[in-house]
Amino acid sequence: MRYPKVREAVFLDRPNRFIAHVDMEGETVAVHVKNTGRCRELLKSGVRVVLAEGAGQGRKTAYDLVGVYKDDRKLFNIDSQAPNAAAAEWLAGQGLDLVRREYPFGDSRFDFYLEKGEARYLMEVKGCTLELAGVGYFPDAPTLRGVKHLRELASAAGNGWKSILAFVIQTEGVTRVLPNRETHPAFGEALDAAAAAGVRVLYLPCRVAPDRLEIIDIPENRIL
Fold this sequence. Notes:
This protein is of the alpha+beta class. The protein has two domains: 69 residues, CATH 2.40.50.580; 140 residues, Trna Endonuclease, Chain: A, domain 1 (3-Layer(aba) Sandwich). It contains three helices and 16 strands. The strands form four sheets. The protein has a five-stranded mixed β-barrel with strand order 1-2-3-5-4. The chain has a five-stranded mixed β-sheet with strand order 7-8-9-12-14, with helices on both faces. It has a three-stranded mixed β-sheet with strand order 10-11-13. A hairpin with a 2-residue loop joins strand 7 and strand 8. The longest helix has 14 residues. The protein is globular and about 60 Å long. The two termini are 23 Å apart. 38% of the residues are buried.
């Protein structure tokens, strides 16, 4: 997925989950943060950030904050909507008969419902923006919704569905994601139980640039 227009700025502060202040050529500007997670290891005063020009009527901000340079060199896409958009593009090349987004199942709504022949798939996508020493971790904050999704995926796997949890890794050079047990032990336990129940876990590496996030298609991650 791509952003039509991007530019850089310097991050100043984040007064709440939705708004950040940036220095844009000497002017302090409020921008929308497209990620309600903490991102504390990334959003530090003085770091370079990437802004995408916003679209839609009634906006209070002209730009969305979508990327951060960690240690002034490693780019992270932090747009929480980008993983699903990138996954949709990637799935379009997987040879499936049907790809449907936002599929209700049980007490949840999953990101994708897939079909190939008689096989039915449920797929939930999680974006990973937390990296420590070259390893990805999820989540960066407790996620009751994430635990619920894992339990639903495990239940579906026990009833004939092909269940998939896909981590879209929003930076380059990371190939695996581990559960952040310190931050949310229950997510780690739910992930262990889901894997034991037959849920397939994918780690989807990406090409990351200021104006794009694209999943790298490697053989071990093919759906079919």
